[in-house]
Amino acid sequence: MTVRVDMGSDERGAPVLIDLEELLATRLLVQGNSGSGKSHLLRRLLERSAGQVQQVVIDPEGDFVTLSHYGHVAVEAADYSEREIARVAARLREHRASVVLSLEGLEAEGQMRCAAAFLQAMFDAPREHWYPALVVVDEAQLFAPSAGGEVAEEVRRASLSAMTNLMCRGRKRGLAGVIATQRLAKLAKNVAAEASNFLMGRTFLDIDMARAADLLGMERRQADAIRDLPRGTFLALGPAVSRRPLSVRIGTVETAARSSSPKLTPLPTAPAGDLQQLLFAEPEPELAPTLPMTFDSRPRRVPADELEQAIARPAQPTTAAPPPPAKSSEEEAAIYSDALAAIVSDDEAEGRPAAVLFQDFQVRCRMAGLARPALDLSGFTRRLFAARAGVLDPDAEDWQEAMALAATLPDDMLGAFLLVARAARDGEPCPPDEAIARAYGTQSLGRVRRLMSYIEQRDLFVTRTDLSGKRSIAIPRLGWCTAAADVAPA
């Protein structure tokens, strides 16, 4: 079935159509400075293709929630946990629901973490749910930056990886990326390069005009034409639109964004003296009403009736809560062990970045009465790898020497080393390659063999394979050795 979406008209007034099936196979990149009409273009595409294909919108500013007029489900990300967001993403693929994920209200790192979890869950959906879907990402440079910023490096990598999967490998899973950016120079090249269709709007910086001209197949001297494009007009190129650069004036839309461009309004006519008195007036003596606070696992909005009741009640004097009692070092160690054991036993925690799990660890510690865990991210990462190897208390006396040896290895090798060390200490059979791979965070048995070879070159392991093909590993510096066990097949 061929479906063509009317995007507007060209210079001669003829309609410009986008082949929806071709778009699903070849992806789309939209670029233009702020105010050039990118959001208007995306809204036109979404409105005209609604009902023809499933649509998923990653919306940093909450502008597209008005698409609920077309049956889209608006999801306010600030109201849900990361795990709940991932579940929503998996369910929308199963039920083919069109969704707008509004990231309004989250700071930059939270937006990147939420978008990464959402996109990755869509990407990881089972094969029977690989239905075709348009995945629109507005302000894509926020989620696939070309360089590091002020957010944590692990968060940036997770977000960039999710965007790369969408644009590079999403086609086979039915996911067609439609990404919009203000500046091509700020967007990761690996993400931008996977698009075969382009709609380039007005831009002024030379580096962005040069990249846009290259993508459109124009000569550098023709790049100045991009600077002169009027608002709402784009140069289109690609197999789904036109084989040659074509000027498109985007047509009208039926819905509107919650925010709009600023308009001039008359200034107040009050005398300057009155305005000064208003600005420096004494604050009202009455305190603001105190809302009832109840514990919930996620942020929630107070219903209107509760808010009205709280406003009607007079404010009550409050006193500061007493500080929590100090914990002994043994109690802190027990809380750490319990929190790490809960994280390791959680199937959904497997494969998640350490920075994400660190937030969960801090919450679990606070719930156990430890207000400020002394562990930083680096310390938590090493404790996490140790816990995955079954060592919940690496500070115990019988593990101090083993941990000193492990400290000479990179952090990501800690879990594999301790898994073998624990088996060697207890005289248990040598762990199979599959178990070592899980502790190392990989599925490649080839990487496991290279890992074991690296540790053996550091004189930490001595591996012996007997005539029956069974393997045992000794740790000479500790005097420990595993029992012989069958080696995984090559």
From TrEMBL:
A Pfam family recorded for this sequence: DUF87
Helicase HerA central domain segment(s): 11-70
Classification via InterPro entries: ATPase_Atu1862_pred, HerA-like, HerA_central, P-loop_NTPase
Residues covered by region (Disordered): 310-331
Low complexity bias (residue ranges): 310-319
Protein name: Helicase HerA central domain-containing protein
Gene source species: Sphingomonas aerophila
